[in-house]
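Z., the sequence and structure:
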Amino acid sequence: MGETVSDDLADQLVSTCRTTVGDELRSVTYFTEDDEEQLYLREDLESDADLVGFADNERLGFRSQTLYEETELGPYQFTMRVFDHGYLTRVIVGDRGAFVTTDAMEMDRFKELASALRSVLAEETDD
């Protein structure tokens, strides 16, 4: 993969998403405050998306997770963005995050996806 993420973590994230989402998975991107790396792009899609722009927008979540600490809503879990042709799900744990794009799916599958991503990102943070 690249310098942003270890090959092991990249493989775990993509494998987790493929297992949870299946054929509806469109892309997987890992990001930090300073960098981003697309780990997976479904082969029927073009690689012309503004990855840096998407990542810059999703980085706002680092500030949001701090803002939402100590609220009556409980801990931040994940963010979903809904589009005409699919969804973007963002999960942040500590100083790292991932966003995943998918085709339309049932809501429960997004919860499963976010929980699985959170587990993989948290394991890496503990190392």
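Residues 24 and 105 are 7 Å apart (CA to CA). The first helix runs from residue 7 to 21.

Let me know what you think.
H.
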